Structure formats: C-alpha cells, structure tokens
Amino acid sequence: MSQPPVHCEALPNGLGVLLCESRSAPVVDLQIWARVGSADERPHEAGLAHFHEHMLFKGTERRGVGEIASEVEGAGGRINAYTSFDVTVYHATLPSAELCVGLDVLADAVLHSSFDPEEIAREIEVVLEEIRRGEDSPGHVLGNAVFAEAYHEHPYRAPILGSPESVASFERARVRAFFERWYTADKLCIVAAGDFETPRLREEIRAIFGDLAPGG
Fold first, then answer.
1. Could you please report the per-residue DSSP string of 85-133?
2. Residues 114, 80, 177, 192: is their CA dihedral positive or negative?
3. Ramachandran category for residue 102: left, alpha or beta (phi over 0 → left; psi -120 to 50 → alpha)
C-alpha cells in the first residue's frame, strides 16, 4: 500500500505547515503545535506554559467562555490540548465536512485569547487543584522525583505544572508577556491529517496565519 502524500513547508513568516491526506475515513485531525514547554520558562514563570494550555480555551473576542469547546463538539468533533517539557499542542478531531469550523476555532483560541483577569483567577484555582491531585498520586510524585534527580541543572528537573507558589502569583501582565514571546509565527506549526484537499487547506491556513508576525 502506498503512503499518503505529505506536504511540508514554511510560510514566509516562519510558520510551519505539515499536511497529510488520507481518505480512509471522512475525518480530519487538526493540530497547532507551539514550540514552548515548561523547559522554556524563566524562574518566575514556572507553570506558565501549562497555564496557557488552560487559558486558550477561556474565551476570545469572538467566543465566550465555553464556546470554543462547545462549537467543536457541536460540529461532531472533540478538542483538547497538552503540555510537555518542549511543546504545547492544541488539537481537534472533526468530520471532514467541518474542517473549516475546526481550523477557525483552533486558530481563534491560539491567536486571540482574551486573558480575562477573572478567568485567570479562576483557572489558577483549577491548576492548583491539579497540582494537589498530582501530589496524591504515587506515580506522579515518583516521576517528578526521578526527573529532579536525573536533571540537576537542566530545566527538565522542574514539574511541568509548576509550583503552587509560582502558579498562585500569575497575573494578566505576566501571562500576556509569555504569550507574546512564544506564540509567534516562527514558533508555531499547523498539522493536519485526514480527508481534505491539500491545496485548499493550504490557502485557508495562509489566509488565517499569513499575516502573523514572527518573533525575536
């Protein structure tokens, strides 16, 4: 069986694009990869990469709190995100007929989060509870201990979720500064796999992300 065609390019602003057509099912998986994880945080930013994973679902100028997930789910899809030491990834799986919905919602979330101060305060409590749950998990505690012992100097030594003290200190200016430093065109990559036409999706990506400025 032949491999499906893969298209890979970088737009003039540095944005990465990786597209893989597959007609095995009328489904598309969309992902936006941000080249930032917990290992990229400065000392006063511990936990901010993961915090952005939460905040980018908390509303934009066009969509209120909860509408980002509900719009994708209403189109028959699902949306989620995850953070690692090196990347933060936002992803949605939808029927191929709803590809435009998924791309618009993901792009809006990743590029135009409102970072409302009240939502930041609420999400701080959510992440603090996530940290507390992790402290009650032997596997989670052991994993953090192993990384702390294995990486005495490298930033992999620190937990991805950050410390309670650091997370509790987050405020809008710090959150926004982190976003503006890392969520730039040259640090993002758009990935899609599934049932779509590459030329058409390329043009849609260029129309949405083509004017996004690169970072420093």
1. SS-EEEEEEEEGGGHHHHHHHHHHHHH-B---HHHHHHHHHHHHHHHHH
2. negative
3. alpha
26 close to 8: Cβ distance less than 8 angstroms: no
In degrees, rounded to 5, the angle at the alpha carbon of residue 24 between the alpha carbons of residues 20 and 28 is 50
Total count of residues recorded for the chain: 216
Identify the band that residue 43 occupies on the pLDDT scale cut at 50, 70 and 90: confident
Say what angle helices 138-150 and 117-135 make with each other, to 10 degrees.
90
Catalytic-labelled residue, pool 41, 45, 53, 71: 53
Has 53 been annotated as catalytic?
yes
The pair of structure tokens assigned to 169 is 């200190």
How many other CB atoms are there within 10 angstroms of residue 80's CB atom? Answer: 13
Q: Please, what is the average pLDDT of the chain?
A: 95
Element (DSSP H or E) covering residue 76: none
User: Closest by alpha carbon to 81, among 113, 111, 56?
Assistant: 56
In this structure, what are the phi and psi dihedrals at residue 81, rounded to the nearest 5 degrees?
-160, 165
Averaged pLDDT for residues 94-103: 96
Helix (H, G, I), strand (E, B) or coil at 166: helix
In terms of Cα–Cα distance, which of 203, 202, 133, 204 is closest to 164?
133
The span from the CA of 70 to the CA of 63, in Å, is: 10
**Burial tier of 147 (Cβ tally within 10 Å: 0-12, 13-18, 19+):** middle
